[in-house]
Structures are given as structure tokens and as C-alpha cells.
Amino acid sequence: YFSLMATGQMSRDEAYQMALSRQKKSERVPPDEIGQIGSPDTPKDYFTREEVERMSQEEVSKNLDIINKSQPKWK
Fold first, then answer.
1. To 10 degrees, the CA torsion angle through 60, 61, 67, 69?
2. Does residue 36 register a pLDDT over 70?
3. Contact between residue 69 and residue 47 where contact means Cβ atoms under 8 Å apart
4. Distance (Å, rounded) from C-alpha 40 to C-alpha 73?
């Protein structure tokens, strides 16, 4: 900020915004944590015909909305 103000070519607001912009560009943002492959905690949004055939009646009842959305994609 002060070095930008020292040039005399910017107003205080412009220098402040430029300093904030530079600071954001130089910050390191760590990536989101990657979960385990096939983690059972991840809710599914699609089931294949074969998966549904292997389900118990209780599992089918529990996942009925997702199964109904999946059916039009089955061949």
C-alpha cells in the first residue's frame, strides 16, 4: 500500500484495492481434502439395474427416490 501511494499516481482507495488484489493473488489456498475411493459414507445419486437387483427389499425402500431417478438411464 505504502509503495503504491509513494508513486503518487493513485488515490488512497485505488492503492488500497490494488494492495488487496495483490495480497489475494499471493495467498496459497490448500485444496480440499480428498476422500477415500469407494467410501461407504458417500451418498450415491445413481444406481445401476444390477445394483438394485442385488439390494434387499429394505435397501430398495430406503433408496426408492434415487432408484426412480436412475431408471430412465438404464438400457
1. 180
2. no
3. no
4. 23
- Residue 74: name the closest of 48, 46, 44 by CA: 48
| pLDDT tens by residue, 50-63 | 999 999 999 999 99
Half-sphere exposure in the Cβ direction for 56 (13 Å, CA): 2
Tell me if 1 sits within 8 A of 15, measured CB to CB.
yes
pTM (2 decimals)? Answer: 0.45
d(C-alpha 61, C-alpha 39), whole Å: 22
Query: Grid coordinates 438411464 are at which residue?
Result: 73
Q: What is the pLDDT of residue 40?
A: 62
* C-alpha dihedral sign at 49, 54, 60, 62: negative
